[in-house]
TrEMBL record:
It holds the Pfam family tRNA-synt_His. One of its GO terms (molecular function) is ATP binding. PROSITE patterns: AA_TRNA_LIGASE_II. It is found in: Cytoplasm. One of its GO terms (cellular component) is cytoplasm. HAMAP family: His_tRNA_synth. Its EC number is 6.1.1.21. It comes from Phenylobacterium hankyongense. Its main location: cytoplasm. This is Histidine--tRNA ligase. Transmembrane segments: none annotated. Homodimer.
């Protein structure tokens, strides 16, 4: 290679991030906790490949000749079995499920209940907190049209989020039904698809603009503080008030909300069907022990209703959080789902009912941090065995091996630095302790253990846990046979 060749710049591709142990371990803990819940509900794990043929991804491919808008696509070899077809990295985990179900429907147990997690890729403009690669976790039931299937997904989502670490009362599953919205539109005299979408967009702004702002958007339009004008849905005053009455019906318990909704959308065939489905979901959730404080019926939930065909649900973090400027902000959605009965039909021509819930793992980790449960902060490194003398390496490895055999992560320092840099290395690794074995320790059959957790606690200036600190000397010399017990005490004592 020529010495004049330019060196490549070390840089991340836009929208892709490197993640180290703290974030990875936190996400693995979330997935382990959620997977345990999903499997207790009888859902089996499924893993599909990263690539799907582009035509299987459907609506995400507007350009059939070169399907690269929204996805990362490449063309297979012309002489391959696919005959030069385009294939793309999966955009989500639902389209691969639909393809898998259609491909294997004859041999699958029906209904088919599966959960899956893994990276997905979106060829979109990246921004703050918006990446082109991220990890999703989905759970779906394919082949059951019963509202109880939706209820079970909702109950499982509630339990999964709590198992991941969200304290009870910090999040809620909000439930609506596409059929209620359709019934409302019919009652309000809205038939044009564009006007329907404008109504949904107006309702989606209820949390931010309040009833008065939404009323303007349902009518002629709204002028915001900057002077920009947003054209409204063009409803007359009576229709706009009917929509607002619909959004205001979500008060009290689930049964009370259903009664209030019946007064707004009852009487239309589709509206009554939606009410009956929500009533069945309510009954099943009650039987599963999921009260309205964990899952409520909220008619203001409208996101994704163009995609879903029946019940739709959204998990929302209830905690007040702060933005990067320290200002209060609404964290918002941490996951969502609903019933989609048309996806498998793309492959088979036959409608197959399906319902599911999905969340982004990184976003849930961020929500946990906002809720006071930073899983990344709980990640510690291994115990570090300080290496003084090359001739004693076998002794150091024997100590590391003893700790590992006891289930304690440990490593021998394998750099070439002295004592102080080795201790700094251990601290940078967030090691709970360092083990020191010099000539004196070897001669006496002892080891010296330095409590690095205590050192970090003292350095942080924390004034509580005084009794905890008094009972833990920063450094002890103990018989070799007490090494594991001494390290275990440090690990167990961390507040």
């Amino acid at each position: 290679m020529s010495t004049d060749a330019p060196r490549p710049e070390a840089r991340n591709p836009r929208g892709f991030v490197d993640r180290r142990a703290r974030d990875l371990v936190a996400e693995r803990r979330i997935l382990a906790a959620v997977s345990s819940v999903y499997e207790r509900y009888g859902f089996e794990p499924l893993e599909t490949g990263a690539f799907e043929y582009a035509d299987a991804l459907g609506k995400f491919l507007p350009d059939a000749d070169r399907p690269n808008e929204g996805v990362f696509a490449l063309q297979d070899d012309a002489d391959s079995e696919g005959g030069g077809q385009w294939m793309a990295l999966r955009y989500d985990l639902t389209a691969p499920l639909a393809r898998f179900a259609a491909q294997n429907w004859e041999t699958l147990p029906k209904p088919f209940r599966r959960y899956a997690y893994g990276p997905v890729w979106r060829n979109e403009k990246p921004g703050p907190g918006r990446y082109r690669e991220f990890v999703q976790c989905d759970a779906d039931t394919v082949g059951s049209a019963r509202p109880e299937a939706d209820a079970e997904i909702i109950a499982m989502a509630v339990e999964g989020l709590e198992a991941a670490g969200l304290p009870a009362g910090t999040a809620i599953l909000k439930i609506n039904n596409r059929k209620l919205l359709n019934g409302l539109m019919a009652a309000a005299g809205v038939s044009d698809d564009g006007q329907k979408l404008a109504v949904l967009r107006a309702v989606d702004k209820l949390d931010r603009l309040g009833a008065d702002g939404v009323r303007l958007l349902l009518g002629e339009g709204r002028l915001d503080e900057s002077g920009a004008f947003t054209k409204g849905a063009g409803l007359n005053a009576s229709a706009a008030e009917r929509v607002l009455a619909f959004t205001a019906a979500g008060v009290g318990g689930r049964r009370e909300t259903l009664d209030a909704l019946a007064n707004v959308v009852g009487g239309s065939a589709e509206g009554d069907e939606g009410l009956a489905e929500l009533a069945a979901i309510d009954a099943a959730l009650t039987g599963l022990g999921v009260g309205p404080d964990r899952a409520s019926i909220d008619p203001s939930v409208v996101r994704g209703l163009e995609y879903y065909t029946g019940p739709v649900f959204e998990a929302e973090l209830l905690l007040q959080t702060l933005d990067e400027r320290g200002q209060p902000m609404r964290f918002g959605s941490i996951g969502g789902g609903g019933r989609y009965d048309d996806l498998v039909a793309r492959f088979t021509g036959q409608q197959v009912p399906a319902t599911g819930f999905s969340f982004g793992v990184s976003r849930l980790a961020t929500a946990l941090k906002a809720a006071g449960r930073d899983l990344a902060a709980e990640v510690r490194g291994p115990v570090v065995v300080i290496a003084f003398d090359q001739a004693r390496m076998a002794d150091y490895f024997a100590v590391a091996g003893e700790l590992r055999a006891a289930g304690i992560p440990a490593e021998v320092y394998l750099g070439s630095s002295g004592m102080r840099p080795q201790m700094k290395y251990a601290d940078r690794r967030l090691s709970p302790a360092a083990v020191i074995i010099g000539d004196d320790e070897i001669a006496a059959g002892t080891v010296t253990v330095k409590d690095l957790d205590l050192g970090r606690e003292l350095a942080s200036g924390v004034t509580d846990n005084a009794a905890w600190r008094e009972q833990r000397p920063g450094q002890v010399n103990v018989p070799r046979g007490e090494l594991v017990a001494t390290i275990r005490k440090i690990l167990d004592a961390r507040p």
